[in-house]
Amino acid sequence: MRVGCVLERELSGSRCLASCYIALSLQASYLTGFLSYWLLGQAVPAGSHVRLNLQTGAREVKLQDEDKFRSNLKGLKKGKRLDINTNTYTSQDLKSALAKFKEGAERENSKEDKERQAKVKRLFRPIEELKKDFEELNVVIETDMQIMVRLINKFNSSSSSLEEKVAALFDLEYYVHQMDNAQDLLSFGGLQVVINGLNSTEPLVKEYAAFALGAAFSSNPKVQVEAVEGGALQKLLVILATEQPLTAKKKVLFALCSLLRHFPYAQQQFLKLGGLQVLRSLVQEKGTEVLAVRVVTLLYDLVTEKMFAEEEAELTRETSPEKLQQYRQVHLLPGLREQGWCEITAHLLALPEHDAREKVLQTLGALLATCRDHYRQDPQLSRTLVSLQAEYQALAALELREGEDEGYFRELLGAINSLLTELR
Q1: For residue 262, pLDDT beyond 80
Q2: More confidently predicted of 171 and 30
Q3: DSSP category for residue 81
Q4: I need a surface site. Which of 33, 58, 135, 177 has the fewest CB within 10 A?
Q5: Which of 277, 206, 287 is nearest to 246 (CA)?
Q6: Which residues form the Nucleotide exchange factor Fes1 domain (predicted)?
Q7: In the 8-state DSSP scheme, what is residue 3?
């Protein structure tokens, strides 16, 4: 490409007029949209796109107004000149302007940084000062692992008093709620120490050892496996089967529930060790209604847990995953029927609390396929259901008048109506 340029200066000297004659294919210029400037230092319109042609070494500028460019090209075909009027700036002017801009930005940033640093210093103290203060107060910063080791040592020490041992277990329960901490407790042997605490002759030690274990077992498969291998399941069942304070049995039942949920292997061992018989005796004791509701809730969870595992396997078309095979070896429903849980659960519906009734109704529904014949032959259950139906119809109507279309009592009424329909 060759371009001939003639530079004409206006009388005022403030503007330059570059008249460029383009001696190249008009079609090529139209496609690229670039014009080549031969005069070094010549001003370019502000905002223009400039490039270096690596093939020719020429500097090229793209015109901003494409419509004007096309119009000028038409004029070129007729032999007219292409005029570009621009303000002239020397390279030194541009360098000076950029330098001033940079200096201003640096001064502004420096001022903002100083203000931010001053604000941070007002809000926070340096770590060196904090460490010095802690040293003066004889305060040692410990990790969770170090704290748990110290608590286990305190609990396991023969020189510790009963109050100190109970306090250590109480504090330990707070830390083992976290899955990683519970596994760390296992790693240094602390879990087995707490399990052995279930053998204590002190009811308070049994109670708070079970409390800490229940927190460690919860949704933590690795700890659950080691607990079963360490004999925790047998020890928990022994406490529930013997005479113990109600508060201790509450904590032990909590630990048992945490150990059994979502752990089919532990459920198998529970059935083999006579766990259903132990729970049956527990709910039939006088004054254990609170425990009875918790036991019924546990049974409901175990029954539905197995059902959901089988439904999930059917949906995903997995016929032999390991966990499903373990669930299929848990023969819970036949055991419940043989141990008389159909009758026990039905009689618990007479409890006065709405929350207890809700949990019993859920369990009755879960056991319906297994206990249907027994329910139909139980006149007391039928009378109880009819009585509750009338009671909750009135309560549901009251909810409806207060503007609650889907209230709590309406849900209970729906569960009762569903059971009555199934048993007709």
Answers
A1: yes
A2: 171
A3: P
A4: 135
A5: 287
A6: 108-185
A7: E
